[in-house]
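Quick start: read one record
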Amino acid sequence: MVGLAAAIGTSRLEAARCGTAILFELKKHPRASFKSGAMQISGAFADNRARTLESDHFLFHYSLRAWHRVHTEPEDSALVRTADSLFAALADLSDATRDSTVYARLDSAHFPHPVYVRKLQEYFEAARAYYIGTLGMLAPVSGVLSVQYSVSASMNRKFPVDVVDVGTADPDFAGETYAVTYPPNQLSITFENDFICRTSLDAQGRIHGDSIKSILSGNVVHNYAREWEMGIKVTAFHEFYHAVQFTYIPNPRTYHAWYEISATGMEERNAGEVDDYLQYLPCVLYNHATVPLNSTLQGPCTHYPMYGQSIFHQYLSKALDSAFDVRVWEQLNRNGDALKDGLETAFAKYGQSMASLYPDYAAQLLFSGARFKPSGTLFSPDMARWPDVSLDSVDMTAANLHKIITLPALTFGILKVKWGPNAAARLLQAKVASGISRIHAGPGGSEVEHLQETQFILGAPNDGFQEYYLVLPNPSFTEKATIEIKDQDGVFSAFPNPVRTVSPATLFFSQSRGMAFPAQVRIYAEDGSLVNAMVFQSAGQSLAWNLKDLDNRSVRPGIYYYRLEEEPLKTLVVLP
């Protein structure tokens, strides 16, 4: 590209985006930008004739002139010199005739296509081989030869990729837009020609503008105007997955979040060295308690969180298998693109549900960044490079503690539970939220407990830890969850009741107001035999029973009784 150094600017209005999402956001179809004759733009003529590289499954239409000139490298210099000389020699011809003649001569002389276009061919064919060949998904078939260029009607019918300056082709994509996949009525992909946006041409025909970059925490991850091959690879896998999606959903009425979540997840799976998704993670990891997993709205940041939510897609690839998303799109095809049913039906084939998967996913995100060492292998090897997930806190030494946390559907909260010499056990009650995890974590390691209860006593940290963390997920698609932490009501009781024998199989006893210490708690079987006994030694102590008898054997499900000292018996139910 002539004038590339001058073209790489520093301004940045918002994180780069996929044009397909913008298309649906605007509820519009692609404009016929410059496909009907030469169109004058700021004194320069847009090239409406294209040279075409044909591969096994694609047609790559591109230009060697003006705004839409593809990026070229030193090895393309002979092609550029020859093309420029042909354009000059045929200057007296009309635009359309001259352009068509130049490209015909280049083809007949077997001039190579630019490296940029050959890389497009390589990565689009690789994307098709993975989605169609490896995963067995439906192959996109286009009914158009080109959306942006005038091309010969005699061309073979293959999937078209138009390489243009995207923002010039359509001002709605004038920002940092990698590419756009048009929906089924014009199924095709319009691809950025040099990863420079907000462009202008100077008197010498040199292009100026802002380079498209991925930026994380103020640091440039990639400058795609320079590292254009990485930009091509990640965009090819992303956009062709949109084409696959539209093959399953031929008449999309809405654009739910899974379109971008899955496309970004697939790009990371196939172009993992690029890590373009990293730039979207702060919005997700800092706002996990307010930004729903399935939101298509702009988040409390400069872009849309659904790109960052692709880490849930990465998690599912490990928790289920690499083909799980095929099942999702097959079900979306059958059910009219209803996302909740599509996901739950796909999860059910693995014996899972959102209620079982989302809490485990949320618990693993506590180990985002470098704050804590995980107790096992995490679902993404990149997690150490992610931002530290945001935390709230609750101080168990506070007097008259009362804290209420409200979580929208498909969000989660993380609560740091601070303990100290004067701390007292408190009661946690959750409505809708389920699959809470209690994680004891510190510089030396971590211990993770997955809890089934929605009501239990918050006691002291495990031995060796000064504090612990509660991951509070709301796996519901529709309902708001509420978590309340408060002082106990002063009545001796057991929580939860009923209690299940599944892990962690723990029952907590609360103290009564004004009780004397030490105070013994006894548990009896239905026949009156003593099952176990334990002692409250001091005020504020959390007393836990692991559902084992005096011989350390797990008790069977059934009816039991418990009492504090000589107070009346209370009933306890143990479920399987």
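Confidence is low (pLDDT under 50) at residues 1-13, 31-47.
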